[in-house]
Design brief:
There is one protein chain. Helix content is 33%, strand content 30%. It folds into two domains: 251 residues, 3-Layer(aba) Sandwich (Aminopeptidase); 110 residues, Alpha-Beta Plaits, CATH 3.30.70. Strand 11 and strand 12 form a beta hairpin. The protein has ten helices and 19 strands. It is elongated, with a radius of gyration of 23 Å. The protein has 372 residues and is α+β, with helices and mostly antiparallel strands. 47% of the residues are buried.
Length: 372
């Protein structure tokens, strides 16, 4: 017999995805969660992370005590990408999707719905073996800002499960990259492009020269680089004196991300020097990578719980970051778990009802028999 109330779980999911909640505007989803928690008499608070992000709500932290004094964190983010307004939700053949004009929002309202179901189950049945510390985070989609600005003085857990990836149920990300951003301003000299082009130094030409020298795209099996934004020039008859560029480098190996980031910067500097310009560079880490081994507690317990409900655990690496990266940076061993979401960040996004139910069962088993 399933531990999950499927009707309640899917009702909550449909309610959540129907709420417009782009980054920095998660307030209505937050109200839904707070109202829900208040009616159930769950202990919760809201931090002040939104003072740093500029959003309309902070992160919500909710606690449900277990048999032991220990807590294990579970988290999902409240914000979604666009287009997300005026969604029309369709269910056919056990699959939930939008009508194709918007995203669905399974990323990451599926995680939130599962967390609410976990709290519901343990509120009405016996206590979990380990306490639940549920974090509903903000502004994940624009740089993991909720996790970065979370009030960690409130956090009681040493371990965390982040419900925010795709793939078959039983899949978890145990290796994720470090990520550096590189913001560049190339300075040239303005002049009239028709009357005196020789007096100018073309900042866009310097940018083109620099980018042509770089390794872009997939550098190796664990390293990628990209130049994603370029802006410059005021008019066709003016030699541009400024070009602004934003790029990034990611790698599962920290030494590689540092080396290829420095190589990218070197290309800008050499091109500027060669062409008579100058360059300002702002290099900063967006997040640090992590690697979890099979004997780590989060991995061992996920393996046990997955097998307990009859599934096969699958551990993978990812080229993207999640709130798990930030928790690991803060010394909380965190693993990113698949909810079954598919085609995320597109208008084809969808999720199987059976997958939402399976992950809810898995997470209930995990907390019910923690270290079992």
């Amino acid at each position: 017999m399933s531990n999950v109330d499927e009707e309640r779980l899917i009702k909550n999911f449909k309610n959540l995805v129907s709420i417009y909640s782009p980054s920095k505007k998660e307030g209505k989803v937050a109200e839904y969660i707070k109202d829900y928690a208040a009616k159930k008499h769950w202990d919760f608070t809201v931090d002040t992370a939104n003072k740093a992000t500029g959003g309309d709500t902070g992160n919500i932290i909710c606690w449900l005590p277990g048999i032991s004094d220990e807590y294990v964190l579970v988290s999902a983010h409240m914000d979604t990408v666009e287009p997300a307004a005026n969604k029309k939700i369709l269910i056919k053949d056990g699959i939930i999707r939008s009508d194709g004009t918007t995203i669905l929002g399974a990323d990451d309202e599926s995680g939130i719905a599962i967390m609410l179901e976990m709290l519901e189950y343990f509120s009405s049945h016996r206590k979990p073996k380990v306490g639940i510390e549920a974090v509903f985070s903000i502004s994940e989609e624009i740089g993991l800002l909720g996790a970065k600005n979370l009030d960690y003085s409130l956090i009681r857990s040493k371990y965390a499960y982040i419900l925010d990836s795709g793939g078959p149920i039983g899949t978890a990300i145990v290796k994720a990259p470090s990520h550096f951003n590189v913001d560049v301003k190339i300075h040239g000299i303005a002049s009239h492009a028709g009357a005196a082009p020789e007096k100018g130094v073309n900042a866009i030409k310097i940018a083109a020269d620099a980018i042509s020298r770089m390794k872009i795209g997939r550098i190796d099996e664990e390293t990628t680089a990209n130049v994603g934004i370029i802006q410059g020039g005021k008019a066709t008859n003016i030699v541009p004196d400024l070009c602004e560029i934003k790029g990034e480098v990611r790698s599962l190996t920290k030494s590689k991300v540092e080396r290829f980031t420095d190589e990218m910067i070197k290309c800008y500097k050499e091109a500027a020097s060669k062409n008579g310009g100058r360059v300002d560079v702002n290099k900063y880490m967006a997040y640090q990578g992590y690697t979890l081994l099979k004997d780590f507690m989060t991995v061992k317990e996920f393996t046990r719980a997955t097998k307990a409900i009859g599934l096969i655990p699958m551990f993978v690496s990812s080229g993207g970051g999640s709130d798990a990266n930030i928790y690991n940076q803060h010394g909380i061993e965190a693993i990113d778990v698949s909810t079954g979401m598919a085609d995320v960040h597109t208008t084809h996004e969808h999720i199987k009802i059976s997958d939402i139910v399976k992950l809810a069962e898995l997470m209930i088993e995990l907390y019910k028999n923690w270290k079992g």
